[in-house]
Amino acid sequence: MRFNEQGLEDVFREVSPILDYTNKKYELHFQEHEFRPAKYSPQECKEREITFSQPLYVRTRLVMKETGEIKEQEIFMGDFPMMTDNGTFIINGAERVVVSQLVRSPGIYFVTERSPSSNRGLCMAKLIPSRGAWLEFETSNKDVLSVKVDRKRKVSASTFLRALGVAYDDQITALFDEVDTDETRRYMQATLRSDPAAEPGSVSFREEDLHSLWDWLHEGEEYDEEAAQRIAGAQIEFYRRLRPGEPPSLENSRNLINNLFFEPRRYDLGRVGRYKFNRRLGMTEDKGPMTLTRGDIISVIRMMIVINQGEGQVDDIDHLGNRRVRAVGELVQNQVRVGLLRMERMVKEKMTLVDPETAAPQGLVNIRPVVAAVREFFGGSQLSQERAGFDVRDVHFSHYGRICPIETPEGPNIGLLSSLASYARVNEFGFIESPYRVVCHELSKDSPDLRGRIVAESVVNPENGHVIVNEDVAIGANRIAALRRLPAGTMIKVRPFVLEASAPRPEDSIIWLSADKEEEFRIAQANAKLDYLNQFVEDRIEIRVGDQYTQGSPSEAHLMDVSPMQIMSRQAVPLLRPQSPTVGTGIEERVARDSGQLVTSRVNAVVTSVNGRKIVITDVEGVEHIHPLIKFSRTNQGTCFDQRPIATRGDVVQVGTRAGG
After folding, report:
1. What 3-state class would DSSP assign to 418?
2. What is the dihedral of CA 444, 450, 455, 460, to 10 degrees?
3. Are residues 279 and 317 both part of a single domain?
């Protein structure tokens, strides 16, 4: 996700429109935003010791609700530090890097904790949103299921379900009949016995309040007064538990539940959280709202009961399938959101005081909170390593092919700063993926790749029963025509082979997998011997599934590592005088280019002028492009950085051609 485009648009959409406290006078809308060109280049910012930034302008619209008048203005929202082509930021003349964070992904996690008194594993679950209140589900020694909201006091799971609209005991137990099957331990029955909101209480509610509550939770269904009474009582009990000491009312209770779980501006699972939640509970991965639903809570409790009965799988929080990369765009987006929410409060206060005649967006918006939040982010270190334990620092089997196990600092930061492995990438959800080559076990009868393949199972003509090709025999040119005459859709089982990148559809030859999806496959090692047709030569090969390594037949393998170097990132030392290695890895040119220390052409052009300080190239339209060279720029530890031109006048250069370094 590009922060400049989608990220900023999302946070402006979250706070827009801003309404006054009465919701009757003003509406302030944020519309399109635009970054204007930077005043100075990155190199000039270093020399002047200023921040490399671009001004942000936002088009706003103020609606006067009482008169219907609309005022539009373009507002300056501050200078935002911008990333250079090298992936760095220049803050007060110093080059800084924002390190991506590897954090626990939003979603649902199930663990078991052994009870010291009963010595059995009790399931706990954590529902972590992208933004909003955490839900923690627990199982007691007496088989009672309970819920904690934001680590506050416990609420019975049945009270929680009742507050969400499941009124009667038999309705609650019916939701879990399929999974709550252990005759000796009935979890929902034990929970209902401990439920203080099981019976309608002595508190009476106004009829119109009960109707309003019913319409909120059961829109379109026939009104049931007793059920509404039970739901209202459960909501009051929920409010008492979370707000002890405050006088409960039905309106306050309903607002609390709505704001905690169903209000998009306060509770957001996020795309990643919804994806992980649905995937963990076996639902359609990308379907569902970004807030919670009653069905989500029911699914979590069902899975807890299954795990308590010893049938389900628990989660490993250190597994890379449960951790995602939070890159610089998302980190800055979070800071901008904080600043905008602070600004929203100030705008609301100004709306109560401003004269409608003189009201204008420019007068209502104070950009100081936004600018301060962004400056705070870039001005100081965000990370603290004091509390990081051994488990966080340790190498985990899911790091294979994703995080280099070698490259990490020694000392207090060991295991906390890591690098991506050579071939790893980050997907749209922030999970690290590793590439694998696809292993094929069969081919279509019409495949052009049949010739020379060794048949794994005899091919028989279904019409006359004649064997066309025997098992373990290569398909010769004289057999191709007979195979083509087989019925449409016939697949021929062949000795397992690895698809080449030059296949008819090269994208089919490589599959990218996150750590959790990888465990669904059996993967062969990259050093397994292949013949000239990429067929496995040996009858037994090394295969891994998750962290288990076994020997098996090639027919069991689904995928194969792309390279023996797949797990590594780099193991090297810097050189005072750069020179080509005697034994190379093949990616030296890419490493040099990615270092950002080279001067490369931005257009297809001809070099028209070269000196020690700049290279000038002219494109086909006659426009000159100046590439300045850095001369003896100070770096750290008393060393300096210097660039020399390697292009000469008259050279024809393409986009990306190296002209100096």
Report:
1. coil
2. 60
3. yes
